[in-house]
Amino acid sequence: MKSNFYMPLYFFLLLFVSNNLLAQELPPIQKFTSLDYGGENQNWMISQGIDKFIYVGNNEGLLEYNGAKWKMYQSPNNTIIRAVNAVEKRIYTGCYMEFGFWERDVFGKLKYKSLVSKFKESMIEDEQIWNIITLDEWMLFQSLNRIYFYNTVSGVTKIIHSKNVISKVFNIEKVIYYHVNNEGIFTIEAGKSRLLVDSSLFGNDKVVGMFQIPDGLLILTRGLGFYKLIDGKLSVWNSAASEVLKNINVFNSIQLKDKSFVIGTIKNGVIYLSKDGVVEYELNRSRGLSNNTALCLFEDIDNNVWVGLDNGINCINIKSPIKVFNDDEGKIGTVYTSIIFKGLLYLGTNQGLFYKKAFTQEPFKFVNGTSGQVWCLFQYDNDLLCGHHEGTFVITDNKAVLVSNVPGTWGFKPIPNAENMLLEGNYNGLNVLVREQGSWKVKNKIKGFDSSARYFEIINTNEVLVSHGYKGLFRLKIDENFTEVKNVFIDSRVPVDKNSSLIQYKNQILYAYKGGVLRYNTTKNTFVKDSILSSVVTQSQYASGKLVVDNTEKLWAFSNDYISYVDVNNLTNDLKINKIAISYPLRKGQVGYENISHLNNNNYLIGITDGYLTLDLNQINKSRDYQLVLNAVELNSVGASNIAVDFQKPGEFEYLNNSVTFNYSVPVYNKYKEVQYQYKLKGRYNQWSKWNNKSELIFENLPFGEYDLSVRAKIGDKLSSNVISYQFRINRPWFLSNTALLLYLVSILGFSLLTHRSYKKYYKKLHAHKQLENEQMITNIKNEKLNQDIESKNRELAISTMSIIKKNEVLNSIQKELKKDRRTDNNAALKLIDTNLHDTKDWSFFEKAFNNADKDFLEKVKQSHPDLSPNDLRFCAYLRLNLSSKEIAPLLNISIKSVETKRYRLRKKLGLEHDSGLVNYILNF
Q: The dihedral of CA 818, 820, 826, 830: what is its sign?
């Protein structure tokens, strides 16, 4: 009967909790699939090292996560690693028939060392290590039938045996407890086991958690919930979650640092309990968790809860100042506006208006009649007005009363000096609403302006500024009764921007666009740039010009990397700008329709495309230090694996390895903390690079020389507490080494010497050649001159010869004529003629001329033929001149026949053969 009574009660509670959780703001969850971490689906145990890296026992091996990248280390015997515990610089693991530890080498990689051989006893057949805990310098490795003790200092070992299955071992305040199925809970005292609680006291159920409480121990069983053990007495802990826990299958649990609890189940995901045992919320497949089977739980140093799942790994930012309401099923839609009114939280979305009791877990309910796009919610006194695509509604609890059916109400502004009157902006211009006898109605449309009035502000008494995203800024002059526009013009001095906005903040009209924030100067009657506020809307970070003023008089702006808010410094009354580093992709807002509203204290609600975020400014402003870690340095080899480098000391690399890869990270596991990196490489890039989110840096084909790499990180808007630095040198290539340079120098000197000698020889030869040419030229010139002289002499000789010939011919002719005349008075003339014909002066002149023209001829003839007479030599000279017998006869004053006779006689004297020509002989002499 008791069981039958509790079953309906359980289902009622489960249904109640389920309905409440539909509207819960839950902590952010980072999800990692097997594709992300590069391993198998199941993850059995999680731990964290002193470097804040996360280590996970996976079906394939040991996973390491440094905040940027996952790395898989294969298990030592290719079996499932089910137990992991990082202690100091070692990561202890246990798997099938093996346990030991991993340590990092100088290259940043983990290397495994087995501890099995340290024990005298061999492991039991098919034994697996399921848990690893630490106690001072002792490490405890738990299998199903043994607990192996290993002293990390002395190396001493010990084993505790159990006949029945050991379900779990615990270290509670430096006391070891362990549960044995069907036996109970044991403790170890003085090195021996002692039964502490008999298993029958909690129905032989398995113990999955043990925790310290002020007056004893708190024990969590798999199916019966919590028990208290105080002064040796066991009793049920009747908490608010008792009935829920009795009807689910608990697989594991942890107690957080704040004494609250996280319960991991087989098929119900994760349940978060307060320290008093109240169910705060449940995370499962439908509420953000990747899988409903939680194989392990772990709280890291930053209070994040890691869940090793049957399929994947999740990190729950359980203490995050940001909470998330995810409308994964699309029942609520994109949130465009929100407000707390009379204790109710209203959400205006693209699907209508929803509400729930504020600050409760109640589900959202739909306000009937509001289906469609809601643009704004506006409180005026005790009335709540809703600007809707269909018009204007007045909202009372869950009821909506249509006030105006004019389409597309953008917003409302109170009309100055007119109580119970509002100016309404809509798709088609401006309307005036009036409240009469507690009811709102449309008083009139303002004639003369029919453009969309999404953003508008009233200045002076009856002047209205309207910002249109495509047309620009309108200035409207309206009559005193707000019925008609008297004058309208577009202020061309104000830039047009489709995502601009117009708003009033602290009695100042502000216009925000991609170029900054303009403030309306009432004296100059124009907009001027506000240098202070423009820092929240910068062109480099521009996403939207949307500005929001909340009911605490904070001014909010939205950029690519930040949500900024402006408030007033209480001491100086100056404006103070604050930035919250949540980038646009993370917050998933609707561009141009960003919205934020104040909830209570310092809590705010931000509308996003699939729900909303809540933000606690008290927690968001808490700063902590973040450490940047250099994980690895590798040399890139073409066609081969990268070469790991000992990065604990400066590097010296050969020129063939002049492409270097650096891996670094910041171990931050907050979903809304974006990590970006910046570097500079002295010797190559001496200025800081632009911020980027890549945790790997590759330099390819670096020239030889000295380098100093500096890397820093930015987590949100906070710089890392350190800057990593690494000095390295790339040696000269072999062809530029000192030996090569010396060889080049010797070669150059040798070549220069050889070239010098060659050139010297060449120029010497050239000089000799030139000299020879000059000599030849001189000789030629001399020969030419000589030839000219010879030709001159020959001409003289020829002239002389011809003169003698002509003279003798004339004389002979005269002589013949005179001889014909027998007169005696001719004798003197004949004698004179005869004297001239035989005058030796003519020969002397001829001989001289002949010797000048043909030097040494007569001497050589004399030497060769000394018996020749002077007449013979004279005859030879005439023959040398190649004169004919007819030409020779006058010269010798003889007849031609006598010349022939003389030729004959000369041949004989010269001893010429019959067939030898006399003239040829003389010419060739």
A: positive
Q: How far is the C-alpha of 467 from the C-alpha of 475, rounded, in Å?
A: 9
* 215, 268, 574, 594, 598 from 532: Cα distances, Å: 58, 52, 10, 22, 24
The torsion of the CA quartet 9, 14, 20, 23, rounded to 10 degrees, works out to: -170
DSSP letter string, 235-284: EE---TTHHHHHTS-EEEEEE-TTS-EEEEESSS-EEEE-TTS-EEEEE-
Do 275 and 262 meet the contact criterion of CB atoms below 8 Å apart? no
What one-letter code names the amino acid at 22?
L
In whole angstroms, what separates CA 552 from the centre of its chain?
41
Higher pLDDT, 766 or 742: 742
Nearest alpha carbon to residue 881 among 806, 808, 812, 795 = 795
- pLDDT digit string, tens, across residues 264-291: 999 999 999 999 999 999 999 989 999 9
Beta bridge partners of 264: 252, 270
Kindly state the tokens that stand for 758.
Answer: 């060659």
- pLDDT confidence of residue 777: 82
Angle at 887 between CA 885 and CA 893, to 5 degrees: 90
Q: Position 541: which residue type?
A: Q
Q: Which residue shows structure tokens 């362990």? A: 178
> What distance in Å separates the CA atoms of residue 564 and residue 97, rounded to the nearest whole number?
56
Four-CA torsion 414, 420, 425, 428, nearest 10 degrees: -150
| Calpha distance 266→248 (Å, rounded) | 8
Tokens of 488: 């309208």
Q: Tell me: the pLDDT tens digits for 490-548?
A: 999 999 999 999 999 999 999 999 999 999 998 889 999 999 999 999 888 899 999 99
With vertex at residue 83, the alpha carbon angle to CA 77 and CA 85, rounded to the nearest 5 degrees, is 115
